[in-house]
Design brief:
Low-confidence stretches: none
Distance between the termini: 51 Å
Number of helices: 9
Largest sheet: 6 strands, mixed
Shape: globular
Oligomer: single chain
Strand content: 15-25%
Structural class: alpha/beta
Strand order of the largest sheet: 6-7-8-3-9-10
Mean pLDDT: 91
Number of strands: 10
Length: about 250
């Protein structure tokens, strides 16, 4: 049985620099298995840069980023392999994230292969079960990404991340291309997975998705955390103008 305490993502004073500009400044974050944290903020706040940095896809890192107790900032690329096997990123831009010449079954199989897990063939019951969990017809397993709708591709991207059986999932705006019923179905899935021990970092601008899904919220603006609080507190009484603007954007029935 895995020691869940060893698979902790711990960030202290993290700064991400692109060229001469710091897109993330002095950020602290700790995410364990079973934890769920949301990062919210307007467009351009640095949310996507943050999740890319957490899997070493942004080069200019300073501060501290540790996984399993090992410091990774400044470490050689091979030191990142345990994190890359156990921490999966579900991209906001699913079309760019999925190989256009690989059918869905091969995309999921590739994720398992890279994580060192047994491969799935196109008719594997586990593969079909995973597609159903993300609200997709298993018949799509033989289709190419370009033949799918944007919402279907987004769900394939999530299935690909989950196929690697991660300890921690970084979900970057995974409901933005979905209609509300499908979006809520995926949110219910994330809640279920969290109950099974998955750590979740959820990037969104939609505060309505957060109650019951995450415990803590970080509000990001211009690369800095401007508010950090529990979900209920943020929605009931946001303190920062950016937080208040995000709450005001949540649709309400008259």
């Amino acid at each position: 049985m895995k020691d869940m305490s060893r698979e902790t993502l711990s960030v202290r004073g993290l700064t991400v620099t692109l060229g001469a500009r710091a897109v993330i400044r002095d950020l602290d974050l700790e995410l364990r298995r079973g934890d769920a944290i949301a990062v919210v903020g307007p467009s351009g706040a640095g949310k996507s840069a943050l999740v890319r940095a957490l899997v070493c896809l942004e080069p200019g890192l300073s501060g501290s980023l540790r996984f399993g107790g090992l410091e990774l900032v400044g470490a050689p690329s091979e030191a990142w392999r345990p994190l890359r096997r156990r921490v999966q990123l579900c991209w906001q831009d699913s079309l760019a994230a999925l190989h256009p010449q690989l059918p869905v079954a091969a995309l999921l199989d590739e994720a398992r292969l890279l994580a060192g897990l047994p491969r799935w063939h196109a008719k594997a019951p586990e593969l079909h079960a995973l597609l159903r969990r993300v609200a997709l017809d298993p018949a799509l397993a033989r289709r190419l990404p370009g033949s799918l709708s944007g919402g279907q591709r987004q769900r394939i991207a999530l299935a690909r991340a989950l196929a690697a059986e991660p300890a921690i999932l970084l979900a970057d705006e995974i409901t933005s291309a979905l209609d509300r019923p499908v979006a809520w179905a995926l949110i219910d899935l994330l809640r279920e997975l969290r109950g099974g021990g998955l750590g979740l970092l959820m990037v969104t601008h939609d505060l309505s998705l957060l109650p019951g899904t995450v415990d803590q919220v970080l509000v990001l603006a211009a690369g800095e955390v401007v508010e950090r609080s529990a979900v209920r507190e943020l929605i009931a009484a946001p303190q920062h103008p950016v937080s208040r603007a995000l709450r005001a954007a949540v649709p309400r029935l008259p």
